[in-house]
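Quick log. Single chain, no ligands specified.
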Amino acid sequence: MKPYIYDSLDSALIAELRKDGRASISFLAQQLKVSRATVQNRLDRLISSGAILGFTVRVHSEVESQVVRAIMMIEVTGKSTLQVVNKIRGIPELTKLYTTNGAWDLVAEIQTSSLAEFDRVLRRVREVDGILNSETSILLSSM
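-> predicted structure:
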């Protein structure tokens, strides 16, 4: 990421884009009470600096009713966290991976299209050398 000093306007712009990543420059300028040129310049800098990695779609839960989503907490042995991360990062069904503190070393978000695929992913993760223990919770409904 290129060095860039972020300020309250950048934070406000990012917050608006989190609400609606498709918001127009005009709408964002109106919400932030700045000119369209200012919004466009800030947005360009946030993208080029790497602060904004991309734009995504949030889908209503009914559209993804056949998707199995889960959170997996992972405990690794000794100092093998980097090895484990490098091995499981290549599993496409792990949509996000976080380091954390406490009893678990890593937290992974899993998304599959069926329970059979979900089971296959769980087995694949658990077979990775360096993983001592894991606990997985299927996400049932969004509130």
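Residues 36-49 form the longest helix (14 residues).
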